[in-house]
Design a protein that fits this description.
6 helices, 23% helix, disordered N terminus
């Protein structure tokens, strides 16, 4: 038991319930979601606000640990709260008053005790925006990657086909650290949908849904697909890159600010 968990156990008295909240945030001013001592994170700000309103510390579980600068519209978080006096609408209003507009609670509900934001999720959906026109847009500067050179969207759409299905995405992921003697973690993931849309006025939208993602996977995919759109790679190369499993064979990471965790799916519910 960590010191934080011990403190929470000491201070929470009486029956507790599992609470699920849906959170949106602008990741620009945060060093990612996960709590990290000494830097401002979404989890740190959110846990502090929730603890102040509830009157006891809480431990958060989230559907996806977004990186520094990445945004969310449908991040899902669960925690245990003291049941007595719990008022979820008032909780959401108070947290939004303290954390908004950078962080906002969109929904709050009591769920089954075994529901977990991360482990109960069946799929996650990410969205990446590219502003593809000569002139920048100050209203999209925090949420879209500005690329002046024209991109071939048709080629980028075609290049998405090999991603569908279950594959080893080692070529598109940052391999996790492992302790001595531990086997390498599997980077096999199942993608159920991936594609590009033209939202007009130069905005290209990439959306991808999978049962799970490995670290930096979406940004690596987008960086490689932009290479295809710019004519630096052929759409037909994607299947070979997947089979090779070599991170050096894929493109550079797309900037984090264009990425948003859009939706998390569960049995019978989505954020």
């Amino acid at each position: 038991m960590t010191l934080f968990e011990a403190a929470a156990a000491d201070m929470v008295t009486g029956p507790t319930v599992r609470v699920r909240i849906t959170v949106a945030y602008d990741g620009t001013g945060f060093h990612g979601f996960a709590a990290n001592i000494g830097v401002r994170t979404v989890a740190g700000v959110l846990a502090e606000a929730l603890g102040r309103v509830l009157g006891h510390p809480i431990e958060l579980s989230c559907a996806g640990r977004t990186d520094r600068g990445v945004h969310a519209r449908g991040q899902v978080v669960t925690f245990d709260a003291r049941e007595e006096g719990l008022d979820l609408p008032a909780l959401a209003r108070s947290v939004n008053h303290m954390c908004g507009p950078a962080v906002a609670v969109r929904d709050a509900a009591v769920v089954a005790a075994d529901f977990d934001a991360r482990f109960s999720a069946t799929a996650r959906r990410y969205r990446y925006l590219v502003l593809n026109r000569p002139d920048p847009d100050p209203f999209l500067a925090r949420t879209a990657w500005h690329i002046e050179r024209p991109l071939d969207r048709c080629a980028m759409v075609l290049a998405c086909d090999p991603f569908i299905g279950e594959h080893d995405f080692t070529a598109f992921c940052r391999r996790p650290k492992r302790r001595h003697g531990e086997p390498d973690a599997s980077l096999v993931r199942r993608v159920v949908e991936a594609g590009w849309s033209d939202d007009g006025d130069g905005v290209l939208r990439f959306e991808i849904e999978a049962t799970a993602f490995c670290h930096q996977m979406v940004r690596s995919l987008v960086g490689t697909l932009v290479d295809v759109g710019a004519g630096r790679r052929a759409a037909g190369e994607m299947a070979g890159i997947i089979r090779a499993g070599d991170r050096a064979g894929a493109g550079d990471l797309a900037p984090p600010h264009g990425l948003t965790l859009w939706t998390v799916r569960y049995e019978g519910w989505s954020s």
